Amino acid sequence: MAGSSYGNSFTITTWGESHGPAIGAVIDGCPAGLPLTAEDIQKFLDRRKPGQSRFSTARREDDQAEILSGVFEGKTTGTPISVIVHNQDQRSRDYGRIKDCYRPGHADYTFDAKYGIRDYRGGGRTSGRETIGRVAAGAVAAKLLQRLGIHVTAYTKAIGGITVPESAYDYECIGDNPLYMPNNEYAAKASAYLENCVKNQDSSGGMIECIIDGMPAGVGEPVFDKLDARLAKAVMSIGAVKGVEIGGGFETARMTGSVNNDEFCMENGYIRKKSNHSGGTLGGLSDGSRIVLRAAVKPTPSIAREQKTVDVHGEETSITITGRHDPVIVPRAVVVVESMAAITAADLLLANMGAKMEYLEKIYRR
Amino acid sequence: MAGSSYGNSFTITTWGESHGPAIGAVIDGCPAGLPLTAEDIQKFLDRRKPGQSRFSTARREDDQAEILSGVFEGKTTGTPISVIVHNQDQRSRDYGRIKDCYRPGHADYTFDAKYGIRDYRGGGRTSGRETIGRVAAGAVAAKLLQRLGIHVTAYTKAIGGITVPESAYDYECIGDNPLYMPNNEYAAKASAYLENCVKNQDSSGGMIECIIDGMPAGVGEPVFDKLDARLAKAVMSIGAVKGVEIGGGFETARMTGSVNNDEFCMENGYIRKKSNHSGGTLGGLSDGSRIVLRAAVKPTPSIAREQKTVDVHGEETSITITGRHDPVIVPRAVVVVESMAAITAADLLLANMGAKMEYLEKIYRR
Amino acid sequence: MAGSSYGNSFTITTWGESHGPAIGAVIDGCPAGLPLTAEDIQKFLDRRKPGQSRFSTARREDDQAEILSGVFEGKTTGTPISVIVHNQDQRSRDYGRIKDCYRPGHADYTFDAKYGIRDYRGGGRTSGRETIGRVAAGAVAAKLLQRLGIHVTAYTKAIGGITVPESAYDYECIGDNPLYMPNNEYAAKASAYLENCVKNQDSSGGMIECIIDGMPAGVGEPVFDKLDARLAKAVMSIGAVKGVEIGGGFETARMTGSVNNDEFCMENGYIRKKSNHSGGTLGGLSDGSRIVLRAAVKPTPSIAREQKTVDVHGEETSITITGRHDPVIVPRAVVVVESMAAITAADLLLANMGAKMEYLEKIYRR
Amino acid sequence: MAGSSYGNSFTITTWGESHGPAIGAVIDGCPAGLPLTAEDIQKFLDRRKPGQSRFSTARREDDQAEILSGVFEGKTTGTPISVIVHNQDQRSRDYGRIKDCYRPGHADYTFDAKYGIRDYRGGGRTSGRETIGRVAAGAVAAKLLQRLGIHVTAYTKAIGGITVPESAYDYECIGDNPLYMPNNEYAAKASAYLENCVKNQDSSGGMIECIIDGMPAGVGEPVFDKLDARLAKAVMSIGAVKGVEIGGGFETARMTGSVNNDEFCMENGYIRKKSNHSGGTLGGLSDGSRIVLRAAVKPTPSIAREQKTVDVHGEETSITITGRHDPVIVPRAVVVVESMAAITAADLLLANMGAKMEYLEKIYRR
Predict the structure, then answer these.
(1) CB distance C272 to C205 below 8 Å
(2) Residue of A356, C201, B333 whose CA lies nearest to D350
(3) Dist CA D38 CA B190 (whole Å)
(4) Contact across the interface for C243 and D239, Cβ inside 8 Å
(5) pLDDT band at C18 (very low <50, low <70, confident <90, very high)
(6) Which residues on C lie below 8 Å from B362 (Cβ)?
(7) Residue B49 — very low, low, confident or very high, per pLDDT cuts 50/70/90?
(8) Reported ipTM
(9) Are D312 and D111 in contact (CB under 8 A)?
């Protein structure tokens, strides 16, 4: 499979460039009978829209989702769901330096190395707009999961050095602040930090956390398609993500087994764990606890300062990136992480239906 | 695809349980004409062998690799390479508690939840012996990469809190110490720490670093099959790995763009970067620099202390895990990380051959 | 993979229903640097257009292809090519009986059995319009093949009992007659036969033949992805195709080995075969000869006569299908067979690039 | 995916050459809890064993199946099932002409063209022994299907010109005659014909028919993974098969719609068809009727007569193939066709479990 598809059972294929006529996704393998409207998808897309705070670009991206297939009389039919978003901003302009220079921290050079040709307009396929397809598909996956009592939530864990400790989490206020932080005071601090970044013609990295509640135990495939391995790929495939961890993550490297092991106990007749250092997976399968993952997001590579680089002819030069750019990618990537986690969960739930004969007999035996 | 296969072009399928008659791998898609012997594979397997230091188990696992197909007169033929390793230690024994109890930090419970049946002997499919198939395949991939001037090297970056700083690296001594650390003094400190762990009936986590040198620029697929996304999945799919990062990784979350961006420059007529915070990938494609990834490995869950848990009947109980177990997984997992990285690199190099018409014309045009 | 994608390296994903807003395809894995315009695709689409003869429906399907991504300055960029065709005829109308009844020979009943919901308007996803996506992708594949000197041609071999014998082939006149037959006299006979079918409120089956010239020897994958196996799947996946054969096909069942075997000989320094009963494949790999396949196409199931059937409530009833329908599917399916063959050939040519180390060294060794 | 794997959910990977140490298959994705023994597999393998009649080779191939993984205490565990069959006949011998010459009708030339290297001993990977892995996997699939009330049966429909008409079928006697024909008198006639072939140093083609009973309606995936398309690929991938048809097959090309359409009716409250020209599929999904497919098998290419050919150096020469060879491939291929059909059915039944939300809710909703 060429790289623009993801998932084996719930499969998404995305397409489109930043400045082409449109961008979209095809979602194949979504079970029939799921209520779905364009509005469900729009809600997700609106969360990645710029212009919601002074830290996201002023560019107008009034992305309207249209469903072209796979839904009939308000329900999915089991056939591929094609979602399209028309690009608003395709006006011809001067891409001057971007066309001829390799921007540091961007994929200009590597795309030329791979393909020998590059749609340089606004980053082409490597633009952040590529995530529109992911988010549209994520909205469908999230709808499916909800019907099964499974909920995915992502939020900003840290911006630069400002990290919200777990003890200060208030999930209720994630939507209250434009940074999608689960604590408004930390959000205020992060805002101040970002203003400083902008003043310095600089940008900031950060961290996104994502939780999945309600996942039944046993989901994921052993060995290569472990739930955590699949989540790692899904989230690391988002541009700018440079690290992924599950549960204790990198902290477990410093821990001892007696601390890290989660003891099992019984709770109202159900098997539960006393702690959750595992982050909800054991042996790559969900263990019935909350699934917790974190993604490290690098600082926006587009900064206003002059940077040294080389041009397409192999001459050393320097570049100053003009235009407005978000000083931090994190807030707009929150819904992308949530989407990729939802798609992964939906895909593995479908794969898991063949885990035991008991399930086949439940469905096929007459 | 069920979860026991990995890779699209260079595809491996592994099989086998800890205490079944044998364990193995099928490698499909390896190009014809690669010189290959059982000895090539044995060298890799020997690196994951226990009993090489006092921190690995005394169990005798004299794993001998046999090639059953796909090689003729010392060269690969392009047909699937089947490698088998017979399990030595299959004697019937008393698995008593493991059979009826869910060990904390292990996959006993989640396998029962998924399949309703579990081969409890020595962990069955979830045993560390599952990695034998990965390492056998990794040896083949590494051989292929070498022919193209690409080299993969993994080593122990940290054990518990003992971390080797990059400034102290001496790659030459990785093989000198049983912990596969790139510095013998740090290895000595780590050994002392591990002895203390054993004394306390406890275990330790750690960190593995892996580098790939010589990768041409442009390898990887945009969007979902990015080189870093694929490496993340490959490495996170190794049991006990709880986090993966590329280049600056989680540190980039705290960095600013002006620091994190790697400026381009010219070096002997080639495009190079002045720094490598990217860890060798930009936009998910190799950028011609060294590829650098790190994996966090949790502490061995099997510890000698008594732990609380529940049994298969849903009764709370406690368990004391007997037998000798490595106090740290890291040293034996080093070659597994190297193998998964090599397999991923080989797979994406093959996928990349279709990137441009120029390549097709080079091969097919008469 | 859910069923709307085809191909591993050159991958197409199609979507869309007969009476939705649009129908389309995403082509992923097309090498960069291939000259491509909407006109290239339009030419292929025009060949499946109805209304070209009195044996195709009078419905207006003025299908205009638009390329939404993956092409920049007239060349493919290596990123997914999204092609869309807007449906012209979406007006609300009375689907009455089709909504409530299962048409004999159609997929109405099986879709309800599978999904429990069905977009009954014009057949929804099971409409012949589904092939638009295949043909758009086929045009791209054909363009790629041409650059490598490979040519795919399909034509009508038989309609009802009127079969053009190989001795009467004149490839030049395929485009001369509306039935796409390689002989105008046979085409005239077939026309007369079809007029009679229409008079009888009946329809006719037929046979399509497809040849691939210029395929280098050795393309295809042994065992499950043999070139002929892949062609069989590709062509049998076209609605209404009930049989596929390669070379001698079903005739070989009656032959003896001494007749069927093609002896090898030398021709201008090249290895050739004295005959081509194999149809261009040996052991599932191309043998350097012309590839020849035939597909049997069933009669159009929509006929004007009253037919007995059952309704969605499980009551026996009868149905008379109104509206104009082609009395034969064959002529419009010719370009669909050609497209599926081209896509398969392109996909396997890409897969074959990893067949030997020599190819990798040609591309990667510095 | 390289070509040695088949199936997306129920996935088989086969490996092994004719004269290597062993041959085998890995079956991944088989649901846990299916009772399975080596004996189940042996029964299938015995059906492809030579030496059962005077028309199969006298070579001793006492193929004993061993299960190496995936089964515990008599039941599948959900992990990959590895089956191995050791090759008995590996003695070094003189392969003389086969090594240097391209046998007409064999894959010697095409393998050299693809890989530049070929294991010439007994045909290597292109030997009929390659089907051992398919049959082992087919036995597992058949066992799974039986538990759901689905039964697959293949038999010899024709040898040379001797075709058993449907009116003469007696399924009871398939196992009675060494040709696996459903009529002993036709089998006797076919035997006489084959003796004549042997006398003439020649061989014969034939036809295999396969039926699947008990398949619920709605199984298969629309568009590219139609049940009939998948069966076509599965069966065409068997060496020597040159054509595949479903239901009316090539006959439908000559038929009219009023004859070919199967009218629906009610039978004991179930929707049924009055005839079965469709062969059990409509729109690529099972329609609840018996699934019927036929495969054309070419004559054994190894014949005793001298044949003209070329050698590996490009010199014209002639070859006389020594050793005993079956004068017909059909009887031994019957169980291979049955196996491929069973694997395909099992794979699509698993895929179909995600067809509607109702199924997911049945399994996951608490």
Answers:
(1) no
(2) A356
(3) 48
(4) no
(5) very high
(6) 362-363
(7) confident
(8) 0.96
(9) no
